[in-house]
Amino acid sequence: MMTLLAEIDQLRRNLSDARGRIDFLERLADEDPLIPIANRRAFLREVTRMIGFGQRYGTPASIVYIDVNHLKSINDAFGHAAGDAALLQVARILVEQVRNADVVARLGGDEFGVLMVQADRSIAEAKAGQLAEAVQQRPLSWQGRNLPLDISYGVHCFAGNDNAGDALEAADQAMYARKRERSVAAAS
Question: What pLDDT sits at residue 78?
Answer without folding.
Answer: 96
